[in-house]
Amino acid sequence: MGFNAGASHNAAMLGPRRKRYRIIYERRVWLFSLVLILPGLITLGALLWIQDWAAASKLTILIFAAIVYWILMALLHEHITRPLQTLTNVIAALREDDYSFRLRGVSTNDAFGGLSAEVNELADILSSQRSRAMDAVALLRRVVEEIEAPLFAFDPQHVLVLVNPAGEKLLQKPAQALLGATAEHIGISHFLSAENESVIVLSSDGPSPQWLLRKSSFRQNGVPHVLVVLSDVSRALREQERTAWQRLVRVLGHELNNSLAPIKSIAGTLNARLAEATLNDQQRRDFTQGLEIIESRAGSLNRFVEAYRQLAQIPRPNLRETGLGPLVKRAAGLETRVAVTVVPGPDIILMVDPDQIEQMLINLVRNAAEASLEAADEKLSASNGNAKAIDPADSAQVRLRWEVSDSRAVILIEDNGPGLANPANAFVPFYTTKAGGSGIGLALSRQIAEAHGGSVELTNREKRQGCRVTVMLPLDSGSARFS
User: Fold this and answer.
1) Which H or E run contains 314?
2) Over 50: is that where the pLDDT of 392 sits?
């Protein structure tokens, strides 16, 4: 029976106490061997003593017999202790998670052979279990790395011990700077204090995503840990909000149209019959003016309601291959009130509804132009109408560009307007800061982008020098390509 590693491996594994017991056992083997051989030597010496041989011959035979007996004792000792040493080495290797050692030349025809076979079988089982465990850990690590939901794990002292790439992206710091730091130091202590299944908002300069926080506990090496998983529910909540607005718009539009149509019709009929009425000139003018106002305002209110009904009636996108560059250039060319600069980007072919995407870009460019014009008017008023006092670089300007980032096509629309005091409300339907605005342009644009699997974000530029609209559309092998 052999072993494919040296016995020195065992010496490092065994403590003083275990080594002492092994030495005692070996001495016992030598003692028992000596007890077995000693009677034979005594008998041989007695037989030689009674022979008439020369003393030198008797001594030679006795020494030769002693050497043979000693060799037999050594072989017996080796046969008993060597397999045990080998078995000890194998078990020590298993204890150190090294499953490459095996007992060789095993025969199940005897007790020790059966024990050796069982040890080999145990090593095979442990090796298989370890391989499966390593595969499972590798798979889990891969899943954690690829999952888009930010994931954090904290020990009992609230020290971060695990973070995935999505968590690094959320906190905008690499794992090396996060691991080993406390939640309070990182600025995410509210993750641990928040209730499970609660919605939290992380502070940011632009619209803050809403995250559903889930907490659970697990043990590692017997120590309790807390696992925090964040799910971005902003789009789902916006979808619910949009559905509520659509229902409200449908109900209000239906009720208002039911009233506005007859009011407008009756006003027109009464205005036509004024010629038959007996009235003086002043009364006729008053009635005519009043009825015209009623008819005009009823028509305006009807158009107002119809505009809002667009939020509830956007059709599903009719996707087809469309070049992004021409869409951006056409939308920019329709705005003539301000200077619109288009910075060429990569040639990209997207699977989108060109009509909806173009309408979205027109809305966003128009908003940017109106914001820039507002700022230019304010500067002109501040200069008391002296246009020469205004630096040409500060005149109304809009800039468009597009690029590719993280498998997405990114369209950037920047203006030099006054910026927004509260960007978070910009996408709320009916909310507007313009005197003649309807409050549906941005909401409609985001709805179009999200219908294409993208998003629209609105942030203030540095030092409130206007706004930046970021439109992101998916760019992958199935829906887009470079031309």
Assistant:
1) none
2) no
Which residues on neighbouring strands pair with residue 177, listed in sequence order?
none
Residue 64 · residue 51 · CB < 8 Å:
no
| Nearest-5° Cα angle at 93, 88 to 94 | 100
Report domain extents, the chain.
Answer: 2-133, 147-232, 236-312, 320-482
Beta bridge partners of 468: 414, 459
Instruction: Return the structure tokens found at 397.
Output: 């300007």
Question: The tokens 């046969």 sit on which residue?
Answer: 79
CB 5 within 8 A of CB 89: yes
Give residue 207's identity as a one-letter amino acid code. P
Within 147-279, where are the H helices?
Answer: 165-171, 175-178, 183-186, 189-193, 234-273
Residues in a beta bridge with 182: 159
Amino acid at the residue 152:
F
Among 159-163, 415-419, 475-479, which stretch is predicted with the lowest mean pLDDT? 475-479
At 203 the pLDDT is 62
What are the structure tokens assigned to 289, written together? 């003016």
Q: How far is CA 434 from the centre of its chain?
A: 38
Distance in angstroms between the alpha carbons of the first and the last residue of the chain: 69
Is pLDDT above 70 for 316?
yes
The one-letter amino acid at 244: A
Confidence of residue 10 (pLDDT cuts 50, 70, 90): very low
d(CA 369, CA 441): 13
The model's pLDDT over 347-378, given as tens digits with 9 standing for 90+, comes to 999 999 988 898 889 889 988 888 888 877 77
CATH architecture of 320-482: 2-Layer Sandwich (3.30)
Query: How far, in Å, are 265, 269, 283 from residue 272 at the CA level?
Result: 11, 5, 15
Tokens of 455: 């998003």
Select, from the ranges 2-16, 271-285, 298-312, 459-473, the one with the highest average predicted confidence (pLDDT): 459-473
The per-residue pLDDT of the chain, averaged, comes to 77
pLDDT at 211: 85
278-287 per-position pLDDT tens digit: 667 776 677 7
Percent of the chain, pLDDT > 90? 9
Helices (H), 278-403: 281-308, 324-333, 354-382
| Residue type at 388 in one-letter notation | K
Residues 6+ apart with CB under 8 A from 309: 249, 250, 253
C-alpha separations of 91 from 19, 96, 99, 135 in Å: 15, 9, 9, 24
Cβ atoms 5, 101 nearer than 8 A: yes
**In the predicted model, is pLDDT for residue 61 greater than 90?**
no
Q: CB under 8 Å to 48, separation ≥6 — which residues?
A: 58, 61, 62
Contact in structure between 352 and 319 (CB atoms under 8 Å): yes
Tell me which DSSP letter residue 13 carries: H
Architecture category of domain 147-232 in CATH: 2-Layer Sandwich (3.30)
